[in-house]
Design brief:
about 325 residues; mainly alpha; 13 helices
Length: about 325
Amino acid sequence: MTTTSAETVIRPARAGTAAAGATVRRKQGFQHGGWFIAPFLALFALFVIWPLLRGLYLSFTDANISGDDTGFIGLDNYREALDDSLMWESLGHSAWFTLLVVPCITLMAFLLAMLAHHIERGKWLWRLCFFMPFLLPSTVAANLWQWLFNPGTGMINHVFGLETPWLTDKSYAMLAVVVTTLWWTVGFSFLLYLAALQGIPAHLYEAARLDGANAWHRMVHITLPMLRNITGLVIALQILASLQVFDQAVVIQDFGPGPEGSTRTFVQYTLEQGFTSYRVGYASAISIIFFVIIAAVALARMWLLRNREEGGR
């Protein structure tokens, strides 16, 4: 009886000591870890938080590029933006570009990953070829395709016997930007799909073969469901990146808006207002509007993903 009573007293004491020690270790770990993330937080605050707050402030002023005679004008910039047809047209171009690029790049990345995953000979060469364009700077990719699309000396018209004015006709100008973007950026999504394919357990396919499932059934019932999360990630990343398209659209048109402004994107229009028209305050206002749109798209994506995960439980 004496031994049992002693053990009963000692065990809670030891448990309490262990819990207190774990709490102390967590606090110490957080304190030490804070020093490691401090440089990132400092850079994030300097290059993200501060510019955002500064832009928000400037959006309520009539600031110009020289910074002189800045006055507070309230919501006037936002009222003007809502009535700015050119701003909405530029936003429509960015949205149309996104609508064209996202499905195409998702499908292309999946097919290329399937090919690189299942091919036997020269597997490393296929992977290198599919991913290498993504390593090029945007200006190099845009200048390369600018030459390919050239109506007179371009290889595309010459090889296919066409006379299409890719860069000078508004009906084809955005399509040229889309093709350039697909070739240049598909490598990133391809790499994500390839890594996900390599993570699918091989025994699932072996069991399906034993049950008589053909290649199509294995892809539909095993591969695609296992890639559902990575597909959602690819789509989300591509939507956010495509809405912010700028580099290739500007360079391929020699830093212009394209024929009849057909390739002027929202980001390009913002820069035109800030650095061509010198209206920093108005450029800040429309950039804040664009930030709200991007944030809304990201939050909608997170909400849909969470509801889908909860529905699948």
